[in-house]
């Protein structure tokens, strides 16, 4: 079995677990698809505008073992989502990321196997559903959503919506004001 075939088998198995674990319809598309840019870019960035400052840059305080929380930021590589949890007890972190343009994603620091971390992108490539089983480390995703005008993150822990104060945005790790977190690009003038 080739590596690509194995990834597809694992992605399909993960989709079944996600649907059961999240009670949402998780479409069955492979997560790491390469997609063309759908919104034209200009020499100064995206034609759809700029990402607001509060989302820019990796949080300087982010590390494994921090209290339960989500960390969301944007940089030149795209969007990032990291989840942390202190202690060794099992915490199930789930969520749905939606983008206005097609997305692709890759896992960072994810555990694999029967009870591992899973994510799947829907057939329209605009919805990503994830489920991380965390025992005190850090799980993360890198998301390419080429110039999406809007990106939203609905985030949960053990089946309950996470308080916005546990969602940290950008390099300053500013607390979110709502869950889901919705980013809307600032239009160019």
Overview of this protein structure:
The chain is mainly β and 189 residues long. The protein has one domain (3-184). Helix content is 11%, strand content 37%. The protein contains one helix and 14 strands, in the order αββββββββββββββ. The strands form three sheets. A six-stranded mixed sheet has the order 6-9-4-3-12-13, with no helix packed on it. Strands 5, 7, 8, 10, 11 and 14 form a six-stranded antiparallel sheet that branches. It starts with a helix and ends in a 5-residue tail after the last strand.
Write the layout of secondary structure elements.
Elements: H1 3-22, E1 41-42, E2 45-46, E3 69-75, E4 78-84, E5 91-99, E6 104-108, E7 118-121, E8 127-134, E9 138-144, E10 150-157, E11 160-161, E12 167-169, E13 174-175, E14 181-184
């Amino acid at each position: 079995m080739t590596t690509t075939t194995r990834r597809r088998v694992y992605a399909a198995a993960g989709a079944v677990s996600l649907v059961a674990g999240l009670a949402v319809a998780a479409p069955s598309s492979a997560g790491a698809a390469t997609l063309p840019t759908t919104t034209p870019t200009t020499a100064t960035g995206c034609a759809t505008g700029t990402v607001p400052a509060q989302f820019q840059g990796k949080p300087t305080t982010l590390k494994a073992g921090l209290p339960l929380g989500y960390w969301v930021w944007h940089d030149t590589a795209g969007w990032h989502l990291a989840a942390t949890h202190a202690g060794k007890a099992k915490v199930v972190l789930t969520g749905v990321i939606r983008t206005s343009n097609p997305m692709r994603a890759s896992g960072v620091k994810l555990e694999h196997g029967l009870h591992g971390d899973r994510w799947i992108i829907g057939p329209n490539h605009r919805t990503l559903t994830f489920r991380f089983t965390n025992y005190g480390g850090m799980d993360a995703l890198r998301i390419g959503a080429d110039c999406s005008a809007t990106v939203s993150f609905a985030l949960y822990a053990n089946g309950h919506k996470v308080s916005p104060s546990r969602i940290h945005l950008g390099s300053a790790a500013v607390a979110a004001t709502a869950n889901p977190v919705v980013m809307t690009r600032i239009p160019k003038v």
